[in-house]
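Database export, one record per block. Field names are fixed; values are copied verbatim from the stored entry.
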Amino acid sequence: MKCILASYLDLYDKDENGNKIAKNFGNQNHILDNIKKYVKKYDNFLFVASNEFNSEATDIYANATFKSFDLTLPFKNYYILDSRTENKIDELLEKADLIFLCGGHVPTQNAFLSNINLREKIKNTNALIIGGSAGAMNMADNVYCAPELEGESLDPNFQRILKGLALTNINILPHYDEYKEFILDNKRFIEDIVLPDTFKIIVYGINNGSYILIDNENYLYGEAYLLKDGKIEKINDEDKIKIIK
């Protein structure tokens, strides 16, 4: 199974009103080259939602994604997997040539993926699987779910380890370059919230534009950091490729 764990794909800009304007997502760190390498045909694109019931938000993000791919690497048909179509999940997965797990709130998406038993159903796909942000995080077997909303880091019942899709054992922290200055619940996100957890689980901090390609080996593309045992180590640079375990 071939997978890409991405911090994000640069799919759109926003205008002055916050509307998403789709654009060609380019080839940063050879992302387009790798998608072309592993997609066998361009018939069916499947967009997996992050919130199964918020169809309005899902359609906004999905349509921007579809338009960006139309500009960059067009498919014949585009489909959405959420509460409206989950009764067709087997058919959608069987015919998919590319499966895109979108970003969003990790626990919310994780619950949706669990509800539709995607962990088992996705094992049979021959499609390239791309996860963006939360979608990439939920691809792990045991998902590291860092608090991201106000109050979550203070909640003793917030679960930081979730059961994911088991497509990889790698845990990523996407948007690492943005999170360096992020403050949540009056705590430094990286130093005070994430690093203490790395005594129990290894996390790869992935900058926007960086990603991990899984194809027998795990290939890290672009700038990234290893968060382990409470320490941070830069392990790769932009435009560089590194094999990781």
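Remark 1: The longest helix spans residues 55-72.
Remark 2: The chain has a mean pLDDT of 97.
End of record.
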